[in-house]
User: What shape does this take?
Amino acid sequence: METAQTTRKDQRRDSILAVASEVFGEEGFQAASMSNIAARLGGSKGTLYNYFSSKEALFEAYIRESCGRVGSEIVDFADERPVPEVLQKFGERFLDRTYSDWAVRTFQIVIAEARRSPELARTFFDSGPMVGHDRLSEYFRIAKARGEIRPEDCGEAAWQFLGLCRIHHLEVTLGVQSKPSSEAIAKQVAWAVEMFMMRYGAR
Assistant: This one.
């Protein structure tokens, strides 16, 4: 049974993660410090260590919870409409979140830290991209069993569809292109769906 103390502890933890996300986003992982986060939070550094054993542990928790929240917003395949319609809806939500300021900045931070802290990169990959891939793969397996698509390898097909959607991800991540409009995203996804169905659609 949840107690008032448990609720306050959870709320405090959520507050820490919210402030940490701001600091990491503004300063990057290396420049950010537990002292900076504590100062902005309005508490002591000791309070942070009561919840997270290190800056790495705090960043890992931030990655896991943020990716989980984003994943729940875009990954929903409890839909019996035709595959192209399901993929269009999924693709638009996927790109909208992928090109968001949060996602772009987080990806930049993870890439910058990947060599020094490969475990953080693995956490990001497992909590974000891999979750979306696995759920899309499972949807493809169901659609294949219904005779709607015919990929030889549903896991590989999932990576291929995500890749078709993300052809401008490099430009956006590098800052040489701004986030595409909703109309441009819809057009990009429609092209990806068409290409995917040309290759894997039932005949």
About this structure: The two ends are 54 Å apart (CA to CA). The longest helix spans residues 4-31. The chain is about 75% helix and 0% strand.
